[in-house]
Amino acid sequence: MSDAAPAGFSARAEQAIADARLQGALDNVTALFGSRRAAAFASLPNADAVRDAARAARLNAVAHLGEYLERFEAKLQGNGARVHWAETPAEANAIIVKIAKDTGCARAVKSKSMVSEETHLNAALEAVGVTPVETDLGEYIVQLANDRPSHIIAPIIHLTRQDVGRVMEQRLRVPYTDDTQRLCATARTRLRGEFLRADMGISGANFGVVDTGTIVLVTNEGNGRMVTTMPRVHVVLMGIEKLVETLADLDACLKVLARSGTGQQLTVYTTMVSGPRRPGDADGPDELHVVLLDNGRSRILAGETAEILGCIRCGACLNVCPVYRNIGGHAYGDTYPGPVGAVVTPGLRGLEPWRDLPHASSLCGACREVCPVRLDIPRMLLALRRDVADARLQPQSLALAMRAFAWTASRPAFYRAASRVMRAWLRVRAHDGWITALPGLARGWTQSRDFRAPAAKTFQERWQERAR
Amino acid sequence: MSDARARILARVRAAQRTGFVPIAQPFRAADTEAGLKACATDELLARFLRELTAIGVEPFVEPTAEGVRARVAQLVGDSAVLRWDADCLPYGAGDRLAHAADGASPRDVQAAAVFGVTGCDAAIAETGSLALITGRGKPRAASLLPPTHIAIVRPDQLRQTMGEFFRERAAELAVAANCTFVTGPSRTADIELTLTLGVHGPGRVVVIIGPEE
After folding, report:
1. Which residues 48-77 of B are in CB contact (within 8 Å) with A?
2. Which of A190, A313, A340, B52 could form a disulfide with B57 if both were Cys (CB 3.0 to 4.6 A apart)?
3. Looking at the domain that runs over A44-295, which CATH code has it been given?
């Protein structure tokens, strides 16, 4: 990934829509996760109250972020952890590179961390000769294939098992197989060696608990436990917004996170790290470092999309989004795909290069419906669209058309006359009552759908006739 | 980097004053746990067993301490074992595993174990989870490295919810380095959404529930 927005959101979207295999995979994953999510919430008593509690937990933390960050830092330090602050991805990477040098670490293992993808940490570590090995199975394949993840919790839904078999054959020099169990067994064996040899474990954080100074990680495979247990140095890279105040808050968030993501009650491993190993502990890291990254989050907090900082990265909004379901994760062009990405990416990376993303939504509201913390994503997308218009970032032709419409719509007599002309013109163009193609600017409307021809008389005309 | 800290906190504080974060109603734990009644141990046990089965754990209920010891011995046979220290295992289960590796063993010996035998610090009935708090004599590796994890649970360790466990054990959690909830065998569905067990952690989890002591 480059630092600038890759050009052509529309081009990427069209490419994804034309990819029949990707379409099939997207249908499968989004339908499966969707139905599992529904079943998982059905088994939760008081689901609405729990979602309210999770929302309150996250938004309370975001609203008191300054105070909570200081308390969190003090608790972590009291627990024996070292806390580092980074304003930019480059600073975060430099801090982690320095930790590796200072502690003499040469081999690193990583459990899935979206923030490290935001900072391109792997490239920074490779540049100083420390090759971090991704250990989440999907992310491991992504790394071997030199690819990019396409879903928050199912990173390689765009690949088939045959693709995975070929990647392992080429990169690991093992015999080709497309048997999923054997592919997983190969990964287990390879990565087990990495876990046992690594000096440094790098993880993200699903939550940070302010009251206890605890980093919380959830994984299903157990790589999160390995990374936080086996190497002698554990480095956590987390965004500053990931806090909850209390263990009760954490409880509410955990109740909704896995249900929303994979449809489980709880992920297999919920790991709560509150410091390096204590005297007498048989294992665990000697050092715990926590790197708190801002990278635009404080800027988001100061604007109308501040609510998005409450996101717990479950991925539920992806699975229900009619746009994501058609274009997949890569088309969004950056670390965070789907409706959440359409809000987060312009916030973190700047609106100008990412101005297409707020428009990658039909505003149907499905994301708001499923969001476990009830984030009003459509409201935020609209706010960003307004910002795009205010900053005159949209195409000239659209701005002109909108101004023309505003002029017409605010002059009733002219509006009525214009709509009469337009109606007559559209009715001439119609075939069997349908309009299938429009010229010029309006072409986009009819490229993938047909319109009913307008009625001979408007509702208002008929109403007036009736009143007579 | 302390400059970065000061600048980030200053920006965050200034941003908070803009008031863009929606206000959410504070909640009480009682709201989210309404409808949950205090349960008798046998009700908790029934729920725990149901959840264990649902997530693919093999449960055994042994009416005597000797039954627990015999079950462990029968499961592990002659295979290499990595276990918690004997005084951390209930029902004297460690006595039958005198030659097993423990937290003090070299890592390659630990990594070669076929069975990991542990106790637990609590068992959560609602989710079928085992809570494991780190401490002296309780290596994390025993529930992580071997392909099979055997956990021995006392009925009085059963709690209905994770929230209840957090309320009771907050002080302990604040000082321990690590607390892990194990909810079933290690799993992945990353490749074509096909479920595969044991990708990094144990692919087989056995829970033995003994008698009231």
Report:
1. 51
2. B52
3. 3.40.50.10420
